[in-house]
Amino acid sequence: MKIQGQAAIVTGGGSGLGAATARALAAAGAKVAVFDVNAQAAQAVAADIGGVAVVCDVTDPAGATTAIATARAAHGAARVLVNCAGIGVAKRILGRDGPQPLEDFARVVQVNLIGSFNMLRLASADMATLDPLEDGERGVVVSTASVAAFEGQVGQAAYAASKGGIAALTLPAARELAQFGIRVLAVAPGLFLTPMMHNLPEEVQASLGASIPFPKRLGKPEEFADLVAHCVANPALNGEVIRLDGALRLPPR
């Protein structure tokens, strides 16, 4: 799909991988709606790229429906959805204080997995109503998985499970939505220089970067965004989870 002129939604677009993706799509000529729970962050990115900021909790069915309607009113029905909204909680299943609180596990799965599915189901309903483009294509959905989906570390049970769910969702969703000309993909990034990483001491960042075979550095959000843009542009990509990790394989700890 040619990105130029298409309406796009990026969740978690107020910071990190989402902000970089919003900027890349806008630079390629898309009309971008920046979805985020943080209104100020969404507005800052949207103002910078000439897009529209929409406050959205991806876990709220009614709120997400309203947010998509707001984006539709501004730019038309989106042909592109990129799910970048996500959270992480580092807790052991059995810690010093006993079993991990169930609500902690549930919250991560609710935001990362169920939130991504919520947006996929709602955005694809809009996409299915659009006229087909070249090759009968109507839309593209790219979600954010993680290498933790495959090599989750100690303390990452909730995060790994949520990202593993996104990885497992990708192929059946692509198969089901193929009849409507909607492609579904996921990108599984490794260690990237996101706001969470920025908060770590420089020596810790350097150590993490050195653990990556090549290039020996943390990934740049722009590199993630470039891959998402390629996923949108390349019609042969569908039903796949693409690792973006510099050949990194996470150790147990």
UniProtKB/TrEMBL annotation:
GO terms for molecular function: oxidoreductase activity. SUPFAM superfamilies: NAD(P)-binding Rossmann-fold domains. PROSITE patterns: ADH_SHORT (PS00061). It comes from the Bacteria. It holds the Pfam family adh_short. Keywords: Oxidoreductase. InterPro entries: NAD(P)-bd_dom_sf, Sc_DH/Rdtase_CS, SDR_fam. Gene3D superfamilies: NAD(P)-binding Rossmann-like Domain. Belongs to the short-chain dehydrogenases/reductases (SDR) family. This is SDR family NAD(P)-dependent oxidoreductase.
